[in-house]
Amino acid sequence: MSFNELIEGALTVSERVRNEPVQARSSERISALLDAASAVVSEVGIERLTTAMVADRAGASIGTVYRYFPDRIAVLAAMSLRGYERFVRTAVDNLEQSAPETWQDAVDRVIDASVHLHRTEPGYTSLRLSDQVALPDVDGVSMITARFAAPFAKVLVSEYSLTDDGSLADRLDTALTAVDALLVRAFLRDRAGDERAIEAARSVARSVLAAEDSPLVA
Predict the structure, then answer these.
(1) Residue 165: CA atoms inside 13 Å, Cβ hemisphere, count?
(2) pLDDT at position 17, please?
(3) Among 33, 98, 132, 160, which one has the highest count of C-beta atoms within 10 angstroms of its own C-beta?
C-alpha cells in the first residue's frame, strides 16, 4: 500500500457520510458557508457558533444556511470532516514529497500535517482530529483518528516491512489521539504553536509506538 493509496483508505469512510449536492454552484456555496463557520469558530469557539452567525459572516440568508445544514451541529460536523480530509491530503503530500526513510520519520510527517493545519486553517484548533462533534458511524468507525490509523498502519507495514500483530492500528489511534491533545495545548498557548509542546507530541507518539510490546519493535 503506497502513500497515495492512503488517501483512498482514509477518505472512503468520510466521503461516504457526506450528503452534499454535487452541482458546482452548490459546492461553492457550501465551501463559502464552511469558510464563514470556520472563521466564527476561530473567534468564539464551537459552543457559541450559531447558524445565524454563519449566515451573517457569509453574507447569506439564514434560509441558504438551512438549505444545506439543518442545524449548527450539522455545520460543525461538516467542518470537522472537511478538516479531516485536508489533514489526510496534507499528510500524504508530506509523505510523498519527503520520502521518509524510517517509520519514525513517516509519523513525524503526519504530525507535521496537523501542525500545518493548526497554523493555517481557521477553527482547526477548536475541532482538530478529536471527537468534539458527534459524527456518523460508518462501517463501525466513528473516531476520526481511527479512520486514519487503520490505513496508515497498512502503509507502515508495506513501506517499512514492519510486522503487525493486529494491534498497530489501535496503537496508532492512541498515539494520534495523544498528539491531537498536545497540539491543541501548543496552539492555545501560542497562535504560532508552542514548539516545546509540539516536540512533546512527537516524543509521545514515538514512545507509544515503540513500547516494548509494540509490533514496531523487532
Answers:
(1) 8
(2) 38
(3) 33
Best CA proximity match to 85, nearest among 117, 131, 43: 117
CA distance 151 to 169: 8
- Alpha carbon separation from 216 to 95, 141, 175, 186, 213 (Å, rounded): 19, 24, 13, 28, 8
C-alpha cell of 65?
444556511
Average pLDDT of adjacent 10-residue blocks, the chain of 218 residues: 73 48 72 95 91 97 94 90 90 93 95 95 80 49 73 90 87 92 90 93 93 56
Count of beta carbons in the 10 Å neighbourhood of residue 13? 24
Residue-wise pLDDT tens digits, 7-26: 777 775 444 434 444 466 68
pLDDT in tens, 87-113: 999 999 999 999 999 999 999 999 999
pTM, to two decimals: 0.84
Residue type, 103: W
Question: Rounded CA gap, 108 and 174, in Å?
Answer: 15
Residue 22, helix vs strand vs coil: coil
Distance CA 174, CA 14 (A): 20
d(CA 175, CA 204): 7
Q: How far apart are the C-alpha atoms of 118 and 201, rounded to whole Å?
A: 14
Residue with cell 491530503: 89
* Strand, helix or coil for residue 109: helix
8 A C-beta contact, residue 130 and residue 47: no
Q: φ, ψ for residue 141 (rounded to 5)?
A: -115, 110
